[in-house]
Design a protein that fits this description.
mainly alpha; 12 helices; globular
């Protein structure tokens, strides 16, 4: 169990690290968000090819696989666009509307059971997102992109539950990478940056951190009960705050800290329910 928790700790640090590398690419080096998203999928595909069984090809004939991949494709593109102008911590806080939306969609479309206590915690978590975003006439475009990313991700999570019996997690991950690479190919090629050494290094770093983080998370779920390690997903918020401070000298304001605390508390409490 301790090994699984340690693996999740590393995974939940790597994923925000990949997004932080993407933020440097878009906000400081002039790379287009759509290029960062496309390169992440393309490099991830190359990294996974040696691990994929031959029967994975059959997945691509299923229309549901394409819709699921389109959701993660939209989500990653939106979050990279949000990171171009917003702090990492704020983006991740708004992005966590995804698990909240997934709970609602799973109850409606997958007939998953709902309870009053879990629903209350979900609403509290949503209130935390609202505290961070603070919707109004002056809400930033970057946070709207982050909310869009979370919405795409919520649908993606629901579809992942729906299709979980169709193939292994590794095969499903590979299918979404291949399809997303194809969907974004024209836009990625249209926005190729000038390949300097920093841009090349950060592009590979962004993709590798994201891919390795997600693979480690899948491995952790294989060696330990989900109910025990699921709360570690919310460590991404803390990692995002730490990386924002270390790399961009940005710390959340008081209200954002309050929202982060609400999201973390409600999320961890929700995952501990049976």
């Amino acid at each position: 169990m301790q090994r699984a928790i340690f693996i999740m700790f590393i995974a939940m640090s790597l994923i925000p690290a990949g997004d932080s590398a993407g933020k440097i690419l878009t906000s400081q080096l002039g790379a287009a968000p759509v290029f960062v998203a496309w390169s992440r999928f393309a490099i991830g595909t190359l990294l996974l090819i040696p691990l994929i069984p031959a029967n994975t090809r059959a997945l691509f004939g299923n229309w549901r696989i394409w819709i699921r991949a389109a959701m993660i494709c939209g989500g990653i593109t939106c979050i990279q666009t949000a990171l171009q102008t917003e702090d990492v911590a704020n983006v991740f806080a708004a992005f966590f509307i995804g698990p909240l939306l997934s709970y609602l969609l799973a109850a409606i479309f997958l007939r998953e059971p709902i309870t009053l206590l879990r629903t209350t915690l979900i609403l509290i978590g949503f209130a935390g997102v609202i505290v961070v975003v603070r919707p109004g006439v002056d809400v930033s475009i970057g946070l709207l992109w982050a909310l869009a990313a979370g919405t795409f991700y919520g649908v993606f999570l629901t579809m992942s539950r729906w299709l979980s019996g169709l193939a292994s997690p590794l095969q499903l991950s590979f299918s979404q990478l291949v399809i997303s690479t194809g969907l974004l190919l024209p836009f990625g090629l249209m926005h190729l940056p000038e390949f300097t050494a920093p841009i090349a290094a950060l592009t590979v770093t962004s993709a590798a951190c994201s891919m390795l983080g997600n693979l480690l998370m899948l491995y952790a779920y294989r060696i330990a009960p989900a109910t025990k390690i699921a709360p570690m997903i919310y460590f991404q918020l803390l990692s995002a705050v730490a990386l924002g401070w270390l790399l961009f000298d940005a710390l959340p304001d008081l209200m954002t800290w309050v929202g982060l605390a609400v999201i973390l508390s409600a999320g961890i409490a929700s995952t501990r329910l049976r």
